[in-house]
Task: inverse folding
C-alpha cells in the first residue's frame, strides 16, 4: 500500500449500473488507493419512470395506482402518504378502523421489507444460509399480506377515503399465529447477527457514522436510528392509527453496520407487538367514506415512516380532477449521502455491504424512464397506451 | 414544544429575510424569501439547529404565469417549514445550499435537470436521474414539456 502511495496513482473502480451489490441498477465510481476507497460518486436514474409527471395527467384515483408502483417493496406506504394527503386536501376524515388497517398493512409491509433486506445483506456478506432462512420465513408475512389483500406485492389496501379490505376472524388468527412464528425466528436471527464471529467481522466497526454525521448528511429511518438519531415519523408526527397504537422508538448508538442490523431486527419486534395490538383492538366502523371527484384547491405535506425512513409527499391541487403537482421524496435519496461518505477509508471489499447497509431502493429514488413504441419513432400518449392495452387483451 | 412553537421559533430566526408568511395548514408555515436570501436564511436555520432539510422541490406555475418556485422543506418533529423562493421561467437560478447542508446535492441536481433552474455553486452539477444524452433545454417537470421535444437525439 505504501508503494501505491509513492506512485501516487488513483484508480477509479466503476460499480454498476448492472446490479451494484443488489439486483437493482445504480452506478457508482469509487476512486481507490490500493484497496482503500478515497472518494465516491453516484449516478442514478436507471429506473426513473416519470411518475411525478405522470400524476399531472391522471385523475386523483388513477394517480394512486401509479404511485403504489413507485416501489415494489413499500407500495403500501406510498399509497398511505398519497391518500392521507389527498384526504386532508379534500377535508375528508376516514374512520378509525380504516386508519388501523392502514397501520396494520404498513407494519406487515415493514416486516416483509426488513426480512427481505436481512436476507440480501446476509447474501452480500457471503452468508447465504441466513439469506435462505430469512427469505423462507418471510413467506409467512407474504401469505398474511395475500390473505389481507389477495396480493403478495402491490397489495393496494388503500383507497381514497379509506381501505378496501377488512380483517376477518380467520385472518386475525392467521396473523397472530404468523407473528408468533416470525418473532421466534427473528429472536434467533438477532442471536446469529450479534453472535456469529465470521459475520461480525463484516459488520462490527464497518461504515461507522456518528450521530452528528448522520444529522449532517440528512440520513433517515433505520440508517439514522442506528447512529443514535431519534427520528421516526410514526412517533414525531403520528399518522394513520399510530396515535391510538403508539410506537416505541428503537435506537442504537454504535452507528456501524452491526447497529443497522440490530435496529432493523429490533424494529421487527416492535412491529410484531403493534400488529398484535391492532388486530386485538381493531376499532369498529366503516371501511370507506365518500370522496369528492374534485379536490379543493390547496397544498399539503404528507409524511410517513416507510421501512427505509421518512417518505415525504407534497401534493398541490388547483381544484381540478387531477393533481397540479405531486412531489415524492423517498428515503433512499436521503441515505445515499451516508454511503458516499462512510465508504471513504474502507476496503473496496466492504463497499457492497455498506451500500446494502442503508437498504437502498433504486426504484424509490428513480421515478422516470422514457417510454418508446416498438414499431416506430412516435411517442405514445396515455390514451394510445390505454387503447393498445384494451386491444391487446380483447 | 408543539409544532406552532417550533415554527414560531423558525419564523423569528428568519425574520430578517421574510417577505411574506402564511400558515397553510396545521403544523405548517410557509415563508417567502428573495432569491438572494436563500443561502443566508438556510445558514441561519442550520446555525439555530432547526430541524433538517427534508426536500428541495420545484413548482412550475406554467408559461401563463411566467414564474416558478423552489420550495425548501425543513421538518422538526411534526412541524414543516417551507422556504419559498420565486424564480422567473427565463434564466432561473438559485444559490446552492450544499455549504451548510452537504446532503442537498442530490436535491439540487434533481431540481436543475427537471426544471432547468441553475443552482449556482452546487458541487456536482452533473445529471442525476436523466440520461447523459438528454437534449439540452428540455426540462421534463415544467408544465409546457411534451414528449415531442424528445424526438431527436435519444439513443
Result:
Amino acid at each position: 500500500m505504501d508503494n501505491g502511495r509513492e506512485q501516487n496513482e488513483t484508480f477509479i473502480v466503476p460499480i454498476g449500473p448492472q446490479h451494484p451489490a443488489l439486483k437493482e441498477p445504480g452506478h457508482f465510481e469509487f476512486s481507490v488507493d490500493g484497496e482503500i476507497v478515497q472518494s465516491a460518486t453516484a449516478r442514478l436514474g436507471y429506473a426513473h419512470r416519470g411518475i411525478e409527471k405522470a400524476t399531472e395527467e391522471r385523475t386523483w384515483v388513477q394517480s394512486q395506482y401509479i404511485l403504489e408502483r413507485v416501489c415494489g417493496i413499500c407500495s403500501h406506504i406510498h399509497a398511505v402518504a398519497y391518500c392521507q394527503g389527498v384526504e386532508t386536501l379534500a377535508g375528508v376524515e376516514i374512520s378509525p378502523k380504516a386508519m388501523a388497517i392502514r397501520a396494520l398493512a404498513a407494519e406487515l409491509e415493514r416486516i416483509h421489507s426488513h426480512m427481505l433486506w436481512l436476507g440480501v445483506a446476509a447474501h452480500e456478506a457471503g452468508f447465504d444460509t441466513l439469506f435462505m432462512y430469512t427469505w423462507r420465513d418471510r413467506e409467512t408475512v407474504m401469505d398474511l399480506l395475500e390473505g389481507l389483500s389477495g396480493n403478495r406485492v402491490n397489495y393496494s389496501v388503500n383507497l381514497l377515503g379509506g381501505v378496501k379490505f377488512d380483517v376477518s376472524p380467520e385472518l386475525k388468527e392467521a396473523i397472530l399465529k404468523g407473528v408468533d412464528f416470525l418473532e421466534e425466528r427473528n429472536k434467533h436471527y438477532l442471536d446469529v447477527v450479534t453472535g456469529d464471529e465470521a459475520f461480525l467481522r463484516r459488520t462490527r466497526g464497518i461504515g461507522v457514522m456518528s450521530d452528528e454525521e448522520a444529522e449532517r448528511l440528512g440520513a433517515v429511518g433505520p440508517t439514522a436510528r442506528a447512529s443514535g438519531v431519534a427520528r421516526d415519523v410514526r412517533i414525531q408526527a403520528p399518522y394513520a392509527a399510530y396515535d391510538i397504537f403508539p410506537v416505541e422508538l428503537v435506537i442504537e448508538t454504535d452507528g456501524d453496520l452491526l447497529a443497522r442490523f440490530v435496529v432493523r431486527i429490533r424494529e421487527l419486534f416492535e412491529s410484531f407487538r403493534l400488529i398484535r395490538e391492532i388486530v386485538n383492538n381493531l376499532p369498529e366502523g366503516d371501511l370507506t367514506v365518500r370522496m369528492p371527484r374534485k379536490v379543493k384547491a390547496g397544498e399539503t405535506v404528507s409524511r410517513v415512516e416507510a421501512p427505509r425512513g421518512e417518505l415525504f409527499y407534497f401534493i398541490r391541487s388547483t381544484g381540478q380532477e387531477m393533481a397540479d403537482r405531486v412531489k415524492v421524496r423517498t428515503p433512499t435519496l436521503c441515505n445515499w449521502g451516508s454511503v458516499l461518505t462512510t465508504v471513504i477509508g474502507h476496503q473496496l471489499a466492504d463497499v457492497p455491504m455498506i451500500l446494502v447497509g442503508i437498504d437502498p431502493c433504486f426504484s424509490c429514488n428513480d421515478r422516470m424512464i422514457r417510454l418508446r413504441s416498438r414499431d416506430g419513432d412516435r411517442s405514445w400518449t396515455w390514451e394510445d397506451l390505454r387503447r393498445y392495452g384494451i386491444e391487446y387483451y380483447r | 414544544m408543539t409544532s406552532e412553537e417550533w415554527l414560531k421559533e423558525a419564523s423569528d430566526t428568519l425574520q430578517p429575510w421574510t417577505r411574506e408568511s402564511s400558515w397553510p395548514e396545521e403544523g405548517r408555515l410557509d415563508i417567502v424569501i428573495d432569491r438572494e436570501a436563500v443561502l443566508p436564511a438556510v445558514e441561519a436555520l442550520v446555525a439555530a439547529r432547526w430541524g433538517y432539510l427534508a426536500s428541495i422541490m420545484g413548482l412550475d406555475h406554467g408559461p401563463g404565469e411566467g414564474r416558478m418556485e423552489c420550495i425548501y422543506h425543513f421538518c422538526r418533529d411534526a412541524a414543516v417549514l417551507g422556504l419559498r423562493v420565486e424564480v422567473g421561467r427565463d434564466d432561473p437560478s438559485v444559490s446552492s445550499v450544499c455549504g451548510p447542508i452537504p446532503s442537498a446535492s442530490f436535491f439540487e441536481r434533481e431540481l436543475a435537470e427537471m426544471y432547468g433552474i441553475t443552482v449556482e455553486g452546487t458541487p456536482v452539477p452533473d445529471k442525476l436521474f436523466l440520461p447523459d444524452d438528454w437534449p439540452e433545454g428540455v426540462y421534463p417537470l415544467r408544465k409546457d414539456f411534451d414528449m415531442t421535444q424528445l424526438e431527436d437525439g435519444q439513443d
